[in-house]
Write a structure and sequence with these properties.
By secondary structure, the chain is α+β, with helices and mostly antiparallel strands. It folds into two domains: 33 residues; 127 residues, Sufe protein. Chain: A, CATH 3.90.1010. Helix content is 39%, strand content 23%. Strands 1, 2, 3, 4, 5 and 6 form a six-stranded antiparallel β-sheet that branches. The chain is rod-shaped. The chain starts with a helix and ends with a helix. About 20% of the residues have low confidence.
Length: 171
């Protein structure tokens, strides 16, 4: 009989130990996941002269439900530099809007003015995918870029807004 009691006691202790380990395990510390903080107001890349301006949180833009693009430019000698803002594209997870700085026929920088940021996961996806999309844009100099795996809706919205900006710039 003492053998059976010993096995039951061992089983109970093992079960309790496993439960304590499971309850105390913090998956976010061990998965390599990055905890998303407050989203940046604008995600950008490229070289720009002048000062940076922030429009606040992209989610607070009053033009969320509209599609509008703008173009402004300045000429400097033989090649002109212009800033072109693409249409706001509504995705399943939120709006995406791209702004380009174009010198002549070259995209010199890209800013993402709006992107899905409704929850920490959206921000995490944006922080991962948008720099990749920006790099692809400046390398390819057109909207024929690869989608980012795991960010399909953001990628599609980015490409649509990018194409709108390129159309406005005449590229």
């Amino acid at each position: 009989m003492s053998g059976a009691v010993r096995r039951i006691s061992y089983w109970v202790l093992c079960t309790i130990s496993v439960l304590v380990l499971l309850i105390g395990f913090d998956a976010s510390r061990h998965s390599g996941a990055v905890t998303a903080g407050a989203p940046p107001a604008v995600i950008s890349s490229g070289q720009q002269s002048g000062t940076k301006s922030s429009t606040g949180s992209p989610g607070n833009d009053t033009s969320k439900g509209t599609s509008s693009g703008t173009k402004s430019g300045s000429s400097s000698g033989s090649s002109s530099t212009s800033t072109v803002t693409g249409d706001v594209v509504q995705t399943q997870w939120g709006p995406v809007q791209v702004q380009l700085v174009v010198r002549g026929t070259t995209i010199t920088s890209v800013k993402v003015l709006q992107y899905p940021d409704g929850n920490p996961r959206d921000v995490e996806i944006a922080n991962y995918s948008l720099p990749i999309l920006i790099r692809e844009t400046t390398q390819s100099q057109n909207a024929q870029i690869d989608m980012v795996s795991g960010a399909t809706f953001t990628s599609e919205g980015y490409v649509q807004s990018l194409q709108s900006a390129l159309d406005q710039a005449g590229l």
